[in-house]
Amino acid sequence: MLMPAPEKEILAQRSMLIDELRKIIPGEGVIVDETSLRAYECDGLTAYRQLPMVAVLPETTAQVSAVLKLCDRMNVKVVPRGAGTSLSGGALPLADGVLLGLGKFNRVLDIDWDNRCAVVQPGVTNLGITRAVEHRGFYYAPDPSSQIACTIGGNVAENSGGVHCLKYGLTTNNILGVEMVLMNGEVVRLGGKHLDAGGYDLLGVICGSEGLLGVITEVTVRILPKPATQRALLAGFPTSEAGGDCVAKIIAAGIIPGGMEMMDRPAIHAAEDFVHAGYPRDVEALLIIELDGPAAEVDDLLLRVRAIADACGAVTCRVSESEDERLTFWAGRKAAFPAVGRISPDYLCMDGTIPRKALPEVLTRMGQLSEKHGLRVANVFHAGDGNLHPLILYDANNPGELARAEEFGADILRLCVEVGGVLTGEHGVGVEKRDLMPVMFSEDDLAQQQRLKCAFDPNHRLNPGKVFPVLHRCAELGRMHVHKGKLAFPDLPRF
Known about the structure:
This is FAD-linked oxidase C-terminal domain-containing protein. Keywords: FAD, Flavoprotein, Oxidoreductase. Residues 48-226 form the FAD-binding PCMH-type domain. Its cofactor is FAD. Pfam families: FAD-oxidase_C, FAD_binding_4. This protein is globular. Strand 17 and strand 18 (390-394) form a beta hairpin. It has helices at residues 8-11, 14-24, 34-37, 61-74, 126-133, 152-158, 165-168, 202-206, 240-252, 265-275, 295-311, 323-334, 336-340, 359-373, 401-418, 437-440, 443-456, 474-478; strands at 30-31, 54-56, 77-81, 97-101, 108-112, 117-120, 138-139, 175-181, 187-191, 215-222, 224-225, 229-237, 259-264, 285-293, 316-319, 346-349, 377-381, 390-394, 482-483, 486-487. The chain folds into 4 domains: 8-101, Uridine Diphospho-n-acetylenolpyruvylglucosamine Reductase, domain 2; 108-225, Uridine Diphospho-n-acetylenolpyruvylglucosamine Reductase, domain 3 (2-Layer Sandwich); 236-338, 2-Layer Sandwich (Alpha-Beta Plaits), CATH 3.30.70.3450; 437-483, no CATH class. It is an alpha+beta fold. Strands 15-12-14-13-17-18-16 form a 7-stranded antiparallel sheet, with helices on both faces. It has a 5-stranded antiparallel sheet with strand order 5-6-10-8-9. Strands 1-2-4-3 form a 4-stranded mixed sheet, with helices on one face.
């Protein structure tokens, strides 16, 4: 995995840049010594590391604007960073770039109960939003497994999901507006507390843009009333294929659970050893299915779901009888990633998404790929929306294992695209999937996406080296194609 070569012109300006940054951010907000910079050398994708040239920790939108304006004038690259929980290398620093940390933007600015929304800074944790509103019976719906640590700014950058995104949507379905700073220092607002904005859906463009278009300094999110009743069912199956078939049949029956997660045997055992959630150990696949709504509706849906599970060969079914038991069911799933860390020195967490109907086939072929590459895989994923999170287990101390794990992961993502899926569901492209983008997109597709980036960041200074396998200059993307002295479609007006 290669990153853009450091530009000598930028490195030569380091001392001058540091002096100017200290004028903008006084005190300890500019970090330059190597030991302190180590804290920022990677994000959640720890296989790749790089010290930033300098890190800055602004506290106000005005400071962010001034930093970006300075970097734009000096032609210096900038990498925005939230909590650093990204699993795709989206916040991987650059040797000739400023790492812009937003950890000090950690305040809830406003809770508007009448409009059912909250205005928060990007450094507020995902779970922190729910904690701020739960005393009035509200919550923030998207809930990534890292919600205790990941921040809303990063959630917007990656369009994060979570166990409840099947029914309540991803981040893009739960934000109403953002304040963001462009690379030239201009502060803009998109959306707001109103339901929808007129004109182009620029908010939709920003959500999931991975820090390539601007730096988010404020987010307006929807908050929802907590459901009257929530109950969860554990269903164990003799094969992963049977569990996958059950997922497809539940959705086909017109039932949309609040959440529907699946784990295979290695993940079940790891989570049970870690959390002691009461998971059955004698099954190959475990579904956690949560139904929510009025009590009568939940009771009826539980009966229907249980009947479907039985018809698909479930060997065990258990329904939560209390709120504590429901939370315990989810505690095992939420802790599955760290739990797997106890059974392997290292792992790569993949993030492909497939059509639900392809789940049994993909699980079978994933097992074949495991044998091909000689590496174990533990599966933990959002089964309801087909968002797979295979954890490829390896030991970085063994020569060649990281490379094998990367190729195994690439094969899984190619498989996802082959069956009609996509390269990422919520972790983003970053550097992890960057070189696989041509598997899914044509050269014209990628060029069109880069034209959009040019509209926001014409000099490609924001988070370069991410998402696009080959970055074109905006001038190249904007020129017209002339063939034999003639433009295509000469009758169309040119602007």
